[in-house]
Amino acid sequence: MKTIALTVMAIALTSAWSYAAAPTHDYVGVTVCKMCHQTAKNGEQFQKWQASKHAQAYKTLLTPEAQKIAEAKGIKGKASEAKECLECHETAYDAPASQLGPKFNKEDGVQCETCHGPGKDYMKMDIMKDRAKAVANGLTLLSVSDGSAQKFCETCHNKKSPTFKEFDFKKMWAQIAHPVPQK
Ligand code: HEC
Ligand code: HEC
Ligand code: HEC
Ligand code: HEC
After folding, report:
1. For residue 58, which ligand has an atom nearest its CA?
2. Contacts (Cβ under 8 Å, ≥6 apart) of 25
């Protein structure tokens, strides 16, 4: 009896462990993506992101307006340090510091890796050029046409946002689209 109980426990522990050890990838920061994603030929994804409000999402939390919103919600301390705000205004807000590379900067707000996954293991040229390999190394490919992109946007663009009014996906996507030009 005791052996069985111990075996069951061991299995339970092993599966809990393997869950926790599921492959994780480190964040590298948007300046690393910029190296290859800033040319006109590739579609200037970096510049398009930089001109978007996502690039300001963290800095917004430093404004008096944000502080007022936080106080109204009963948050003690700074909005820019509150989990209740950072979860949507920063990339990797809950990742341990050990997973943030030297170029990662939380002040970059909602950057590429929020939507495409932490880049350390897929950012190398030979992997990036092979879609299947990139995905196996942590690249998240959302799609506008199958609805997965909209679903992902709505994990932040929803009523939990204190300033939320509505989310019109088509209009909002048009503001941040960053396609690779057709050859
Ligand atoms: C060393 C150069 C390089 C770096 C660094 C790099 N990429 Fe790429 N990336 C590429 C190339 C090349 C492609 C293929 C483009 C094409 O198909 O025309 C690509 C494709 C992509 C795609 C489209 C994949 C597909 O199959 O549709 C995404 C998304 C992407 N990169 C995101 C990122 C993100 C996010 C970062 C930073 C974490 C990053 N890349 C860093 C070179 C790079
Ligand atoms: C991690 C959370 C998060 C995700 C995911 C996210 N956003 Fe955002 N988005 C924000 C935040 C925060 C702001 C406000 C930034 C600011 O003004 O400081 C914002 C602002 C915007 C704006 C500017 C709105 C304005 O008032 O000018 C657009 C457009 C936008 N997002 C589109 C999208 C789309 C499209 C998607 C999905 C493909 C998406 N967002 C996914 C957090 C997110
Ligand atoms: C569920 C995700 C989410 C949470 C949590 C969240 N925000 Fe936001 N925030 C957004 C999004 C998305 C936008 C842009 C569109 C909108 O207003 O819904 C935004 C916009 C803002 C803006 C307006 C920026 C502008 O350009 O006018 C301020 C200020 C702001 N948030 C402050 C806060 C503060 C302070 C907190 C914490 C108390 C917080 N947010 C929590 C998602 C969130
Ligand atoms: C708010 C989420 C979001 C952010 C931030 C974001 N992307 Fe994307 N990206 C997407 C979505 C969604 C798609 C898929 C578009 C589609 O289905 O047409 C995409 C597509 C791409 C593609 C492929 C385009 C094509 O035509 O094949 C590349 C390359 C890319 N992103 C790179 C980047 C880089 C580099 C950054 C940062 C500088 C970035 N993205 C920031 C959501 C995002």
Report:
1. 2
2. 99, 117, 118, 119, 120, 121, 122, 137, 138
Q: Are 88 and 162 in contact (CB under 8 A)?
A: no
Atom of ligand 3 nearest to the CA of 68: 35
Instruction: Give the per-residue pLDDT at 183.
Output: 78
* Cα dihedral: 173, 27, 99, 126 (round 10): 130
Distance CA 42, CA 135 (A): 19
Which residue's alpha carbon is nearest to atom 11 within ligand 4?
142
What does the alpha-carbon distance between residue 159 and residue 171 come to, in Å, rounded to a whole number?
18
Could you read off the pLDDT of 87-125 as tens digits, one per residue?
999 999 999 999 999 999 999 999 999 999 999 999 999
Distance 100 CA to ligand 2 centre (A): 22
